[in-house]
Amino acid sequence: MRDSLILGIETSCDETAAAVVTRAPDGRPLILSNVVFSQVEEHAAFGGVVPEIAARAHVEALDGIVGAALIEAGVAICDLAAVAATSGPGLVGALIVGAMTGKAIAAASGLPFLAVNHLEGHALTPRLTDGVAYPYLMLLASGGHTQLILVNGIGDYRRWGTTIDDALGEAFDKTAKLLGLPHPGGPNVERMAAAGDPARFLLPRPMRGEARLDFSFSGLKTAVRQAAEAAAPMRERHVADLCASFQLAAAESVADRVKRALARFRTEFPALVDPVLAVAGGVAANGAIRGKLKAECDRAGVRLVAPPLALCSDNAAMIAHAGLERFEAGLVDGLDAPVRPRWPL
Ligand code: KG4
Ligand code: ZN
To answer: Which residues are listed for substrate binding in this entry (predicted)?
Structure first.
């Protein structure tokens, strides 16, 4: 057994993933393998993730994915120090597949088990990719979550803001569906927006100027629907313009919230030598949003850390890495650790 070799398993939504992460002699975390099987095609016909299909697809794929991750890393189960599996939040059936598999491997090999919160995996990713030191500010924007989190230390997370209705990725996905674009919506909206005029439709910037750091996107989604109805029948040109207008409104809304959060961050931690805002979650892939965030960070004297896209969206390396940090901190779980479909950070 090697001290810091962790197998991570992720099955909270529609990605079946396994990875092996360790710590290099110089202290940096090291990804030895990171295998992700996306179920996107199995859900595409339904315009969204179908929980039952997701759980069954995880059952079919996971053993092979875990095997592939171990082979790619060049390690055997007996080399591992512990097994980490996402135990929430997420789809209950999907979570059970990953957590039970992780527990079975741990039980059969006498290894410790780590029940990792999926959001913690995302929140610690900038430490995996860029070695960012605590504390830092995190914008997590995915299909299920939109949160501003102060990451203060392992297990010490302060949620400064969250969405009061839809998640940002969800707003992208619903906009795509409304405009007849395929699932997943985010990348397709961004692709269409590239050819559109963002000034064509006047859409709201939800929460702009609000003192609290929360987000809201359902009003924007409704405004998109109303604009689409008013412009019907929609030609491709209209769709591109509406995508561009929506993306700009979403990006400016996020930038306004982040601007406030950065001001608070700078006030609460005036002595930080290298203040960092890190992004994670699939929406962090969006170029328009990244551009606005970079501008806000530059203005506030904060470094923007945007991990590579493969590590921003759902993957198991982030779960193995969160498991590694927890393991080193002695935060091991029992085999009776429950899966928690709802599990705030
Ligand atoms: O983190 P993620 O892979 O999965 C979870 O939701 O946990 O995020 C997926 C979300 C989807 O809503 C997807 O539409 C959105 O991220 N997304 C994007 C882009 N790429 C993915 N949204 C906007 N622009 C993109 N380029
Ligand atoms: Zn995620």
So the answer is: 140-144, 173, 186, 190, 286
